[in-house]
Amino acid sequence: MVSQLPLGGNFDASGVHREDKAAKNPELDPSAQRFAVSASYFEVMGIRVLRGRGLTAMDRAGADPVILLNRSGAARIFAKDDPLGKRIKIGGMDGPWRTIVGIVDDVRHLSLEGEVENQMYLPFDQNAYEESDLTLVVKAGLTPGTLAPVLARIAKRVDPGVAVSGAKEMGEVIARVVAPRRLALSLIGGFSAIAVVLALGGLYGVMAASVAERVREIGLRAALGATPGGLVSMIVSRGLLLTLLGIGIGVAAFVAAGRLVERFVYGVSTWDPLTIGAVALLLGAVALVACLLPAVRAARVNPLIALRE
Known about the structure:
Elements: E1 13-18, E2 31-37, H1 41-45, E3 49-52, E4 66-70, H2 71-78, E5 87-90, E6 98-104, E7 119-123, H3 144-158, H4 170-213, H5 215-223, H6 228-256, H7 258-264, H8 273-299, H9 303-308
Parallel strand pairs: 2-7, 4-6
Antiparallel strand pairs: 1-2, 1-5, 3-6, 4-7, 5-6
Helix pairs in contact: 4-8, 6-8
């Protein structure tokens, strides 16, 4: 069970007040997203416990209040201090002191972009806040359509007055969040494909015009003993030189605008050699194709006909 599902579109935040460094004004203390969860939540959702322990069935109402922090939240709130074993209050100062018993991995709750927020998890049975609804997370090999009626019947047996609705796979939740991003990337991919085709046609046009203007020179070179392979190499090398110049300018612009790109492309750093290398190879292949046809045409020029023109 969880009070707010990651990427579910809702969240709840509370202030975090350290016992060892009580602020004169609690309103200046940091805040963190608050999640009330059951003991098996971390296992079902695949959230790793990095230090300390997770929640157990012993963390029930009446037991010593405990809480877990995420890795980024612990680093921000406690800096270089070890948070394990320390106590905090959440929300108002009239609440109980809760002992930090574990540090868990970060979860992107609001979106896939930006920094991970401060997050804290407290046992469902020790939650003093009234939740309007809760989410049951189930790890199973069945589809929601098959599993939902079974879960609804079990819930009705536990509490006949409970309302069960909105069964869906976690993949659907994520798909709804990333749908605008996928649409934007599809459009960008389409425009990129058009740009590659235009680059191919433009480079071919430039190289074809260059060969047409240099017919007499090419004929003279052939008459003086230039081989077809040498003529092909001359034309292709010139085209690839222009391509390398363009790739160099593009890489410089990409690095300069890296921070802007990082905001829009989740999981890609400002300097991604793999992506840059793949794009450079693609453009090099496109340039090679665009240069080969004019180069082959140049190699077939008859020196006598070329010199007469």
